[in-house]
Write a structure and sequence with these properties.
The protein is mostly helical. The protein has one domain. 85% of the residues lie in helices and 0% in strands. Helix 1 packs parallel to helix 7 and helix 10 crosses helix 14. The chain is globular, with a radius of gyration of 22 Å. The N and C termini lie close together (10 Å).
């Protein structure tokens, strides 16, 4: 049954993302203490460029595979060789352009960093087909094992190299090592193997669909990295290091949680693309559950941003506090707005995503540039704060119109996590100021106490206000872990 597969997939992804998130945050904290903001800034500059080419190299093949029903061996072989050819092409292009990129940022060391990171284009192209087939079949237990092992291994390598004096190269080499380990494990778990055959007609339809997907992703990549690009160019690698850390801390919880949902729900939505009633029901429930998890996390980081920075990163990272707070607010929106493109892709409406990304492509970079000139790094944060909510409301309009859903139904669906987060913020602020937990010092114990009491207040509100949601979550956990053997599975 589809429901059983979805529950199992969500269970595996939730466990995997929780473990990898905890490990990733731990690694970031350790590396932040050992490395300098400039080290993170240099790699951030390199990732602006290499990340874009990695996006192009995939060419939307993954989404095309996931959405294609009854995919044939001929199709998978054809798109594999197409993906590998494109990956090699991106490697050659990146290697050739590395000196120009280094010259643009006036950082000679970027040339070698970019050239080494360019190997990731070939590595990532090898995983596209088997990884996408595992996703299409909802085999997230195998996917999750690959992710956990590769991220854990990459983190250990990064820490070992950093404490061995490799500096910025600890970040570079660990990135490549993580990619190699992940690709190797994907092939261990997947029964698919490439064959020496390529048929243009078999790949044509999938590549055409992928082209629409990649066009939207390219625009998304430019506007979502424009802030890094502008700060790196105008303010230098040191300030970019602060901003990169703020972005990582704010977006890592959101990205991990939404990755769980999107990776599971896109193939699920694809299976329900012809059943609007069930599709809408799944969409609202998933949005509610995501908000119930991400909103309190973002609120807690927002309220305790300064204390978290001092305790975990040390005072040298205090300039990152203001952008961290702003990006927490943006992270709330991002955690739920990313679900809409998955629904639209599942319904074959990639053009709508492209239209929205076109608007952001032209508006956000201009706003970041003006904000940076007026207020530096904080000015860029203000651009996010005042402009993104206005722009993303248009995506909600397009998506809800396509789903034939009212705004009032969508907002009402989000009321419990919104109001619960407001209550939690009040409790944490009361503890923080009225009882003077942080008046004389900022240490780990009072930070943990304030966090636990705040999250407890949020949980109590959810239990009292929407008890059915709590019972529903408990049922999902029991069914997903196989502990609900006596319950009858129903089709939703």
């Amino acid at each position: 049954m589809l429901r059983d597969k979805v529950l199992k997939a969500l269970a595996w992804q939730t466990g995997a993302k929780f473990l990898t998130q905890v490990f990733s945050l731990t690694v970031i904290v350790i590396l932040a203490r050992k490395l300098s903001p400039s080290d993170f800034g240099l790699v951030g500059m390199a990732f602006i460029f290499t990340g874009f080419l990695n996006l192009i190299g995939e060419f939307g093949i993954g989404s095309s595979i996931i959405r294609t029903k009854n995919i044939t061996r001929e199709q998978t072989n054809s798109v594999f060789w197409f993906s590998l050819f494109f990956g090699i092409s991106m490697f050659v292009l990146s290697f050739s352009l590395a000196p120009s990129i280094a010259g643009f940022f006036a950082k000679d060391e970027l040339k070698t960093i970019i050239r080494v990171l360019s190997l990731s284009f070939v590595i990532n192209s090898l995983r596209t087909v088997p990884f996408s087939l595992l996703t299409q079949e909802l085999k997230f237990d195998q996917r999750s094992k690959s992710e956990i092992v590769s991220i854990a291994s990459g983190g250990v390598i990064a820490i070992s190299l950093a404490y061995s004096g490799f500096g910025v190269w600890s970040l570079v080499y660990s990135t490549l090592a993580r990619g190699v380990i992940f690709v190797s494990l994907v092939y261990v778990f997947s029964s698919w193997r490439p064959e020496m055959s390529f048929h243009r007609d078999a790949a044509k339809g999938m590549i055409n669909f992928g082209a629409k997907v990649i066009a939207a992703r390219i625009q998304w990549y430019f506007y979502s990295n424009a802030d890094f690009f502008i700060i790196g160019k105008m303010l230098g690698d040191h300030i970019l290091g602060y901003y990169t850390m703020a972005f990582k801390m704010a977006m890592l919880p959101t990205e991990r949680i939404t990755a769980i949902v999107n990776q599971v729900m896109f193939p699920t939505f694809s299976k329900l693309q012809d059943d609007e009633e069930r599709l809408n029901r799944y969409f609202l429930k998933v949005t509610r559950y995501v908000a119930m998890v991400t909103f309190p996390i973002m609120t807690l980081i927002f309220v305790l941003a300064e204390e978290i920075t001092i305790v975990f990163l040390t005072e040298k990272w205090l300039p990152a506090v203001f952008p961290l707070r702003v990006l927490c607010l943006i992270g709330m929106l991002k955690s739920i707005d990313v679900i809409i493109p998955s629904v639209l892709l599942a319904k074959g409406r990639a053009g709508i995503n492209l239209r929205f990304n076109t608007i952001l492509f032209f508006v956000l970079p201009a706003a970041f540039f003006l904000g940076c000139r007026a207020g530096g790094m904080d000015g860029v944060a203000y651009s996010w704060l005042f402009l993104y909510p206005l722009l993303v409301s248009y995506l909600f309009y397009l998506g809800l119109r396509e789903l034939n859903m009212l705004y009032s139904d969508y907002i009402g669906n989000l009321f419990p996590p919104i109001f619960g987060s407001m209550i939690m913020a009040g409790v944490v602020l009361l503890i923080k100021y009225a009882f003077g937990f942080f008046a004389e010092f900022c240490s780990f114990v009072p930070l943990v106490i304030a966090s636990i009491l705040g999250l407890a207040s949020y949980a109590i509100f959810q239990y009292l206000y929407v008890p059915s949601e709590f019972h529903g979550l408990m049922n999902i956990v029991r069914q997903a872990t196989g502990r609900d053997g006596d319950s009858k599975t129903t089709s939703n």
